[in-house]
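Working notes for the structural subgroup meeting. M.R. asked for a predicted model of this chain before we commit to crystallization trials. I am recording the input and output together here so anyone reviewing the notebook later can reproduce the run.

Input as submitted:
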Amino acid sequence: QVQLVESGGGLVQAGDSLRLSCAASGRTFSSYAMAWFRQAPGKEREFVAAIIWSGGRRYYADSVKGRFTLSGDNAKNTVYLQMNSLKPEDTAVYYCAAVSRPFSGYYYNTRTYNYWGQGTQVTVSS
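Returned structure, recorded in token form:
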């Protein structure tokens, strides 16, 4: 069984930075892509950032471009999300996701991913 474990969330003030980490553990696992999503209270889960390991392409939601940076290590199935200039509207539970095979859907669609972490809370106060 594959598990994704997130860490690094917390309570910060607007303008501060946080770094989230996500590591896959369990049986031998090779991901094709990994991503971060977030879900605020009363809202649907939304795409934040993704990386497709083949070619190293990275994608970001417009709302986080220029502030968030996704990095990672394919061999370790680990991704990081560096979040700078945080805003109160970034407050959400952040989820790590992974897909183990090439997909025909979209990197920003939750249905593309077949593994999910439990989430880590990020709260940004004004």
